């Protein structure tokens, strides 16, 4: 397994802590203290870097608080990081990029490539206005040991996932399965086949009644379709390490 030395902890919904082989802590989609299912032990946690897939509240609802108690880069699509800068986040920490681009974060010993995702991206401000924050994206994270993780973000199924698999050969994928706003378990199973991963970590399910997909349903669909991908089903605060 290429992710040897990497630990992934699910903080509920689509928020994750990733510990690199060097022990650096990355936060994916900072929805922490206002996340109804995130364990309290992580509400005041600091991180060495933040990765953002898109700008909806259930992905960046606590971005400013997390940025204050964290160090290191904040990576996201250019429109979103530019907005964070306008809101007071230090400009030298912001790594704005766009789809197809790759950035190397030397201090964290990772490479991040931004891929497509089929979803919207906006944030409702305190006065009720909708702030456009660019497009939603996926992220491919390559670690120093050669392991590769595909974080799909919020998305529907799309055929170019096959190209993501061919270009980056990820070992593990983090895929949404909740339905209504993202893929359902059936689509996520097909995504596993397109990307060609050995293991999948499901997310974006169970937080609200609308999100009806479950890891068990994903396992059933993978078995029905004879797709050889193992489901790593985590509870909030649960971890897996390779």
Sequence stretches where pLDDT stays below 50 over 5 or more residues: none
Number of domains: 1
* Span of the ends, CA to CA: 7 Å
| Oligomer category | single chain
Shape: globular
CATH topology: Metallo-beta-lactamase, Chain A
Mean pLDDT: 97
C-alpha-based Rg, rounded: 16 Å
Number of helices: 6
Helix content: 10-25%
Amount of beta strand: 25-35%
Please, could you describe this protein's structure?
This protein has a single domain, classed as Ribonuclease Z/Hydroxyacylglutathione hydrolase-like (Metallo-beta-lactamase, Chain A), CATH 3.60.15.10. Helix content is 20%, strand content 27%. It is built from six helices and 16 strands. α4 packs parallel to α5 and α5 (185-195) packs across α6 (215-224). The mean pLDDT is 97.
Helix-strand layout with pairing:
Layout: E1 7-10, E2 16-19, E3 25-28, E4 49-51, H1 57-60, H2 63-68, E5 74-77, H3 78-86, E6 94-97, E7 102-105, E8 110-116, E9 122-124, E10 130-132, E11 137-143, E12 148-151, H4 161-168, E13 172-176, H5 185-195, E14 199-203, H6 215-224, E15 230-231, E16 239-241
Helix pairs in contact: 4-5, 5-6
Q: Which tags fit this structure?
A:
6 helices; Metallo-beta-lactamase, Chain A; alpha/beta
Gist of the model:
It contains six helices and 16 strands. With 242 residues, it is of the alpha/beta class.
């Amino acid at each position: 397994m290429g992710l040897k030395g990497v630990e992934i902890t699910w903080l509920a919904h689509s928020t994750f802590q990733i510990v690199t082989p060097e022990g650096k802590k990355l936060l994916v989609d900072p929805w922490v203290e206002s996340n109804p299912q995130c364990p309290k032990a992580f509400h005041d946690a600091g991180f060495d870097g933040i990765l953002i897939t898109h700008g909806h509240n259930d992905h960046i609802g606590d971005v400013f608080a997390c940025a204050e108690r964290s160090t290191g880069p904040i990576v996201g699509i250019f429109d979103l990081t530019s907005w964070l800068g306008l809101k007071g986040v230090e400009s030298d920490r912001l790594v704005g990029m766009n789809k197809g681009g790759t950035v190397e974060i030397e201090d964290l010993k990772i490479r991040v490539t931004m891929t497509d995702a089929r979803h919207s991206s906006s944030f409702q401000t305190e006065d009720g206005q909708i702030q456009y924050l660019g497009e939603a994206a996926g992220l491919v994270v390559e670690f120093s040991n050669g392991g590769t993780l595909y974080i799909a973000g919020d998305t529907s199924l799309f055929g170019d996932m096959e190209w993501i698999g061919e270009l980056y050969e990820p070992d593990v994928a983090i895929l949404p399965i909740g339905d209504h706003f993202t893929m359902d378990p059936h689509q996520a199973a097909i995504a596993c086949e397109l990307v060609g991963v050995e293991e999948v970590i499901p997310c974006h399910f169970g937080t609200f009644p609308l999100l009806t997909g479950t890891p068990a349903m994903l396992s059933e669909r993978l078995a029905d379709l004879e797709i050889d991908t193992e489901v790593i089903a985590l509870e909030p605060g649960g971890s897996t390490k390779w």
